[in-house]
Amino acid sequence: MGSFNQVNGIFACQNRFLITNVLKQDWGWPGFIETDFAADHDGVQAALAGLDIDMPGGSFAQMTSSNLLSHITGGRSPLIPLSTIDDKVRSILREIVSFGFLDRPQQDTSIPINDPQSKATAIDVAREGIVLLKNDPKILPRVVTTALYE
Description:
By secondary structure, the chain is an all-alpha fold.
């Protein structure tokens, strides 16, 4: 997952050295690379750098058809080769197939959408993951959360 951070002045999601050279070529990463939510600042540069999926989509996404299509069809510079798009599709499909997602339905209808047991588990996990900070010398803001888990 590409982060929000910059490495040597280049956002991680647009950093060809990190994504393509190191992760995909040097380390042989076979999977796809996606952004942290809304971490992509330039869809064209991200596509050229090797990013495969821009999350979460919608109004946050930069790698959209409206942003990329003219760079793919040759109307705008820089050109995004079709082989680059093919590589993204191949990486995503490889993972879909490897997890067997095409071999079965993707919704388990035996689990209710608002499952009380799932909610209780999520709350327990959140409580166990809480990190307590000592606010000394009172530099952290005071936050009141009376209904955090209700």
